[in-house]
Design brief:
- This protein has 248 residues and is of the alpha/beta class.
- It has one domain: Rossmann fold.
- It contains seven helices and twelve strands.
- Helix 4 packs across helix 5 and helix 5 runs parallel beside helix 6.
- The radius of gyration is 18 Å and the shape is globular.
């Protein structure tokens, strides 16, 4: 599904990603772990098409098509969803209108008719129930006045409504208490569609006790230094990132 080949990138001529190679197949859950400043969010931004970071070499393939230099809109239309590490507030645009517009833009790109009101409301009801989302938020401006946990739940709500082929969840577990984390993790698993895949970006092991990944990748100072099973997360918890690097 997603194939990253020899990808390097920089900001202001400073290398932040160095020769990244990553393969995510259909119906898999991958986890990218690493300390602050290791390049995790930069990698997710590049996959999603953000242009603030300069790609110096390499390619990103999605379903065998080169998407390296496509716009964020084109990449979203192809089925990639990125949840924000720190979701921004957007005054004046209601969540429900934003979601409906996003769905219809994706459908338009595939030459499909707009979603019917009946189907849209049915999907809203289903997704809201799965993640315990307060539907009162639907008429409010996006993320305006939301708590940290509510913003994260809003991101998962958007994921469930859009039904992407690949969901990139950037620190979806940060700032959540245990109860909220369980709700988010359960919602992610229930909303994941057959043949779709998820890339979870995190610092910590705790969400991995609720969502069992197929593979974990350790990103350190812009490089993937190790890929393997969920046991890698236990070693990170034991040694820390610096200690784990020395352990290799």
């Amino acid at each position: 599904m997603l194939k990253i080949v020899d990808l390097s990138a920089s900001i202001n001529n400073k290398i932040i990603l160095n020769n990244i190679n990553l393969n995510i197949n259909y119906n898999e859950v991958h986890v990218l772990m690493g300390p602050n400043g290791s390049g995790k969010s930069s990698l997710s931004s590049i996959i999603a098409g953000k242009k603030e970071i300069s790609i110096t070499k390499g390619r990103i393939l999605f379903e065998k098509q080169n998407i390296t230099y496509l716009s964020p809109e084109e990449i979203a239309h192809r089925g990639i969803f990125l949840s924000f590490q720190d979701p921004i507030e957007i005054p004046g645009i209601s969540l429900i209108n934003f979601i409906k517009y996003s769905i219809n833009e994706i459908r338009k790109s595939k030459n499909l008719k707009e979603i019917s009101y009946k189907d849209f409301i049915k999907q809203v009801e289903n997704v809201s129930q799965i993640i315990g989302f307060n539907k009162a938020f639907l008429s409010r401006s996006i993320n305006l006045g939301f708590s940290g946990g509510e913003k994260k739940r809003c991101e998962i709500f958007q994921m469930g409504m859009i039904e992407p082929k690949l969901a990139i969840l950037d620190e979806i577990d940060s700032g959540l208490d245990l109860d909220a984390l369980k709700i988010i993790a359960t919602g992610i698993l229930k909303l994941k569609k057959k043949k779709s895949s998820i890339l979870i970006i995190t610092h910590y092991n705790r969400i991995l006790k609720l969502i069992i990944p197929d593979k974990i990748h350790i990103l350190y100072k812009g490089k993937i230094i190790k890929s393997g099973s969920k046991n890698l997360a236990r070693k990170i918890e034991k040694y820390g990132y610096e200690g784990f690097k020395n352990y290799l």
